[in-house]
């Protein structure tokens, strides 16, 4: 099973950022509304993610590290209506096969917390008592310490941390209701409180995308025929050091989709001829029955039941908003 897990890890675990993504999704699936992320040396030496979610019961702890030990799916038929982020049950097993992983957790009704450690070895993990508030901490140390070939593909500490930060950013842009704290090498990078009203949401955007973005961005909030598009669109004149500042969410999930990309590009092009392809953060909300988000779990594609009307709606909503500032 160790080898099988290491092979599976090749698909899930590419770098610290992909570990973070899996662990953050687990924390959200567990209903957490506060997540603390601590990284050292780009997340390679240490990645520790603590949440205040529902926790893992004592007898479930060693199972959580086993392959296909997902608690999130009962029957294959459930795949159709899967609403949680994870449903493959191999992230923890894969990660623990290529790192030193320590899992500590406490459920609401437990008298104390429990901990299991897996060190890339095939061994029934020992469950030991630990101190921890309700929720879960997953600590991943020395990523790829036992797979040197993979370790070789890691880039500099800076680059690995940039990727990791981008994962946190993407998620923090999607979940205003969750507080996120990110630290790297003992420095605070993000301290984001949960945001409920418009003002605090805008503040979070400014913290994540910069004050300069928010100063020039146009707010948008348009609803038509059960489709709602809201967020902030930047102008092509907005200069940024970062190449890719385009965030699009469908029902709270980050999406990189051809149809969406096309509609947005077209709207910008038709109204504000030329200029750089701008920065934006946009949220599309629609009836979940009208969109299939599980086309591919990692490629962020979606399939709209009525793609044409979604495309037309996006195009005209953005077109209308941008036309207000037409040069
Ligand atoms: P999946 O998320 O696909 O179910 P994982 O390997 O990521 O598989 O996790 C295995 C199981 O461990 C989950 O189904 C869940 O029951 C439990 N688990 C993992 N992380 C957490 C967490 N942060 N809080 C509560 N339960 C968790
Ligand atoms: Mg998972």
From TrEMBL:
Residues 205-323 form the DNA mismatch repair protein S5 domain. The keyword NADP does not apply. Signal peptide: none annotated. Keywords: DNA damage, DNA repair, Endonuclease, Hydrolase, Nuclease. One of its GO terms (molecular function) is endonuclease activity. The keyword RNA-binding does not apply. It comes from the Bacteria. Belongs to the DNA mismatch repair MutL/HexB family. This protein is involved in the repair of mismatches in DNA. It is required for dam-dependent methyl-directed DNA mismatch repair. May act as a 'molecular matchmaker', a protein that promotes the formation of a stable complex between two or more DNA-binding proteins in an ATP-dependent manner without itself being part of a final effector complex. This is DNA mismatch repair protein MutL. The gene is mutL. The chain holds residues 12 to 338 of 616 of the full protein.
């Amino acid at each position: 099973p160790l080898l099988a897990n290491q092979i599976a890890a090749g698909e899930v675990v590419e770098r610290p950022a992909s570990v973070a993504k899996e662990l953050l999704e687990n924390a959200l699936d567990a209903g957490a509304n506060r997540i603390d992320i601590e990284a050292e040396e780009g997340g390679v030496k240490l990645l520790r993610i603590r949440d205040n979610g529902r926790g893992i019961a004592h007898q479930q702890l060693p199972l959580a590290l086993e392959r296909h030990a997902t608690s999130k799916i009962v029957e294959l038929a459930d795949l159709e209506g899967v609403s949680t982020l994870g449903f493959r049950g191999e992230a923890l097993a894969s990660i623990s096969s290529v790192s030193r992983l320590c899992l500590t957790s406490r459920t609401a009704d437990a008298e104390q917390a429990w901990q299991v450690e897996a060190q890339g070895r095939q061994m029934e993990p020992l469950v030991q008592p630990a101190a921890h508030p309700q929720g879960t901490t997953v600590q991943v140390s020395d990523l790829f310490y036992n797979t040197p070939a993979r370790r070789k593909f890691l880039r500099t500490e800076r680059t690995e941390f940039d990727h990791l930060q981008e994962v946190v950013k993407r998620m923090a842009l999607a979940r205003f209701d969750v507080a996120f704290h990110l630290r790297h090498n003992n420095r605070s990078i993000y301290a984001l409180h949960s945001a409920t009203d418009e003002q605090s949401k805008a503040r979070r955007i400014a913290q994540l995308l910069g004050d300069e973005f928010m100063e020039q961005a146009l707010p948008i909030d348009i609803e038509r025929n059960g489709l709602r598009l809201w967020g902030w669109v930047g102008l092509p004149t907005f200069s940024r050091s970062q190449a890719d500042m385009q965030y699009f969410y469908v029902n709270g999930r980050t999406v990189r989709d051809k149809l969406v990309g096309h509609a947005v590009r077209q709207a910008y092009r038709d109204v504000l001829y030329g200029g750089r392809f701008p920065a934006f953060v946009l949220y599309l909300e629609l009836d979940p029955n009208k969109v299939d988000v599980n086309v591919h779990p990692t490629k962020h594609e979606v399939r709209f039941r009525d793609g044409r009307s979604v495309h037309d709606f996006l195009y005209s909503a953005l077109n209308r908003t941008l036309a207000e500032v037409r040069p």
